[in-house]
Amino acid sequence: MGNPPFVGSTFQTKEQKADCTIVFKGMDGAGVLDLVAAWHVKAARYIQANTAIPVAFVSTNSLTQGGQVALLWTELLKLNIKLHFAHRTFQWSNEGKGIAAVHCVIMGFICARGEKFFASTPHRLFDYGDNIKGLPTEITAKQINPYLVDADTVLIDKRTKPLNPNVPEMVYGSKPTDGGNLLLSQAEADNIRQNDPIAAKYIRLFIGAEEFIKNIPRYCLWLKDSTSEDRIKSPEIKRRMAAVVKMRSASTDKETLKDAGTPYLFQKIRQTDQPYLLIPSVSSEQRNFIPIGYFPASVIASNACFMLPNASLYYFGILCSTFHNAWMRTVCGRLKSDYRYSNTIVYNNFPFPQAVKPDHQQKIETAALAILDARTAEETRCADQGQRCSLAQLYAPNNMPETLRKAHNQLDKAVDAAYGYKPSKVEGSKKDDAARVAFLFKIYQSIATGLP
Q1: What pLDDT is stored for residue 267 in this prediction?
Q2: Confidence of residue 324 (pLDDT cuts 50, 70, 90)
Q3: Which of 15, 74, 146, 394 gives a 20 to 30 Å CA spacing to 205?
């Protein structure tokens, strides 16, 4: 049993990267694995010689989330490794000065070929629920999969299209790569409107993850449909274009160097021409739900967000549900401890309810609309008192308005009914995540095994 160094792939020294190259030889894409993964691989190979040896490591919870799971466990499964006990995510820190608390897991594993030595030992899974600083609840599991869920072994890898071909595709927002020169604060936008009527025509609201969740006004110069005459005549546009040329020309990236020739355009333009549902790519791990919302096509979504063009209330409801958020919390990556949403890992692999009855869909849509109405009511109440309301406030722990909380509970009941699922825990809590995700893994397997 040990506690290897917690070092992500981007923070490894040259020596550590060289070590990982040796350990991960033959493992496709393993360069993104955390350093702690090397200990798991080395130990798994070591116990091939004596299958009576059990192993356990304290490690960062990143090994049990996002794309790292499939990369690591593709190799471990080849070595007949299986988990026999595990602690799901908990917060841990040692007594050293300046040591920040980190989110950890413990994975105890054996070689399946030596399972006879552990035949009388139950699979023990420790879950911390909503209190990762507290004591866990022990679960006797039938088996423990790589996501530390009592379910069959499933590896969720990147998928370019949704698991269900009938659901809409989720796409990234647009990427400026402009050095900030096409982006505007409220003050800059106001100044341009007063002093440059040509540039003012091209000001658009610009929404990133932080701007959306915290209700921070931000704008951009959206010059995709601008005329060459306007770009020449506008002092503001000319000045900003020159700054973009300078920034892109200093880059070592070939594509960015090429794009210096069109400094009035975002480097990646993906904006839809339809109303869309916006999903932030990063959200606080303290929230039970990732806040999402609707925007018109005139509002430009940044590459810190995802878009679901022309999404119906049904899809808004499914993505707002505890079912989807439990799935997200289990399979998504992390930025520090925050959730890092992904269209390729989270959304494209999400098993939507199958063959939904019309009355179930109607109840989901009605509950979804109630969530939007509850948000609007609170925003109006704040505005009447001269206050600005944000989704960060509405979804802060223990601060959700009663009408919004009730709307989410009604939505969960409607979505649970569509799945034919009976919850066993408290509504709106993360405590039921493991059971919900185990349920979803079964649906995922039944769908995925039927795909070409």
Answers
A1: 97
A2: very high
A3: 394
The closest alpha carbon to 329, from 151, 140, 132, 147, belongs to: 147
pLDDT mean across residues, the chain = 92
User: Domain coordinates of the chain in residue numbers?
Assistant: 9-141, 171-307, 315-448
- Please report, as a single letter, which amino acid is at residue 163: L
Question: What local confidence, expressed as pLDDT, does residue 305 receive?
Answer: 97
Kindly report the backbone phi and psi dihedral angles of residue 53, in degrees, each rounded to the nearest multiple of 5, phi listed first. -90, 120
CB 53 within 8 A of CB 83: no
Measure Cα distances from 85 to 48, 109, 148 in Å. 19, 7, 9
Q: What whole-number distance in Å separates Cα of residue 181 and Cα of residue 183?
A: 5
Residue pair 378/368 in contact (Cβ under 8 Å)? The answer is no
Strands 55-60 and 102-111: antiparallel
3-state helix/strand/coil string of the chain: CECCCCCCHHHCCHHHHHHHHHHCCCCCCHHHCCCHHHHHHHHHHHCCCCCCCCEEEEEEHHHHCCCHHHHHHHHHHHCCEEEEEEEEEEEECCCCCCCCCEEEEEEEEEEHHHHHHHCCCCEEEEECCCCCCCCCEEEEECCECCCCCCCCCCCCCCCCCCCCCCCCCCEECEECCCCCCCEECHHHHHHHHHHCHHHHCCEEEEECHHHHHHCCCCEEECCCCCCHHHHHHCHHHHHHHHHHHHHHHCCCCHHHHHHHHCCCCCCECCCCCCCEEEEECEECCCCCCCCCEEECCCCEEECCEEEEECCCHHHHHHHHCHHHHHHHHHHCEEECCEEECCHHHHHCCCCCCCCCCHHHHHHHHHHHHHHHHHHHHHHHHHHHCCCCCCHHHHCCCCCCCHHHHHHHHHHHHHHHHHHCCCCCCCCCCHHHHHHHHHHHHHHHHHHHCCCC
| 61: CB partners within 8 A, 6+ apart | 89, 103, 104, 105, 334
Q: How far is CA 98 from CA 5, 30, 93, 101, 153, in A?
A: 16, 30, 10, 10, 38
81 pLDDT higher than 60? yes
Average the pLDDT over 38-51 and give the result: 94
Give the pair of three-digit tokens for residue 339: 């959730």
Q: How far is CA 9 from the centre of its chain?
A: 19
- pLDDT given at position 100: 57
**Model confidence, pTM:** 0.89
- Give which of 183, 411, 445, 189 is closest to 317, Cα–Cα: 411
Q: Give the model's pLDDT for residue 301.
A: 98
